[in-house]
Amino acid sequence: MKIAMLARNANLYSHRRLVEAAEARGHTLDILNTTRCTVNIASHRPTVSYNGETINGFDAVIPRIGASITQYGLAILRQFEMSGVWPLNESVAIGRSRDKLRSMQILAKHGLGLPLTAYANDPKQAEELIKAVNGPPVVIKLLEGTQGIGVVLAETMSSAKSVIEAFRGANVNILVQEFIKEAGGTDIRALVIGGKVVAAMKRTGAPDDFRSNLHRGGSAEVIKITPEERSTAVRAAKRMGLNVCGVDMLRSNHGPVIMEVNSSPGLEGIETATGKDVAGMIIKCIEDNARSGKTKTKGAG
């Protein structure tokens, strides 16, 4: 098979591992810098150009689109979809997962466990938001944040109101969530591929940091998850429409609650913690599913 990967940094561990895994299984994998791709939307045949030259002949595309270029990356991915190339994760599903508010609305609709969450536009409603999630303390998140950036723990009513008012004063959108104290600064990352949890790890935040992101200095170790946690991760991936994703959960007193569904999960932490060949499993998923024109959304919607 001939596989394309949309990614800006070919040297990242995750991207190198996917290339290695693809080549080990007899495939070719070309990394295309997403920002150097352009689309021709005027022709009858949708095409993608790379560095000015039309590209074709790919059987599948792996989108590893950075959060800072989500909209541009999704436009490129849609063009691949419309030309019949099978995407590991579809553009519509990635768009859902990147919109924190929309993703939580979808998960809540289908009865999946979530922390109490509130959203409003008017900073004058700050106190109402805080009380709606049984705070303080509360966690305040930028809707566009990633890897723990733009996440603040406010421990008092006055500090929470100040943070909310400051964010809204800067005209950025935020969510306010309950603080799950019993999680103790740890969370669970369950990696789902093709409707199954294939690996799981427990992440612990750096000292004096309630965030457990590995990019923020956290640590990871292998963990055995419960049947309820496994079911929650699989159902979350299904409802978001993602073939591959990392589902981040906290262990609360009332069961697992989902913090985020990541459509481009990093592989280094999970492979190191579990010793599993996650990259190989992703390539196997492509082998089993990639068919021309099989994309559900056909790049639209």
TrEMBL record:
Binds 2 magnesium or manganese ions per subunit. ATP binds at K141, E178, F179, D187, R211, S212, N213. GO terms for cellular component: ribosome. Its EC number is 6.3.2.-. The keyword S-adenosyl-L-methionine does not apply. Mg(2+) 2 binds at E260, N262. One of its GO terms (molecular function) is ligase activity. Mn(2+) 1 binds at D248, E260. Mg(2+) 1 binds at D248, E260. Mn(2+) 2 binds at E260, N262. It is an enzyme of class 6 (ligase). Residues 104-287 form the ATP-grasp domain. Signal peptide: none annotated. Keywords: ATP-binding, Ligase, Magnesium, Manganese, Metal-binding, Nucleotide-binding, Protein biosynthesis, Ribonucleoprotein, Ribosomal protein. Its cofactor is Mn(2+); Mg(2+). It comes from the Bacteria. The keyword tRNA processing does not apply. Belongs to the RimK family. This is Probable alpha-L-glutamate ligase. The gene is rimK.
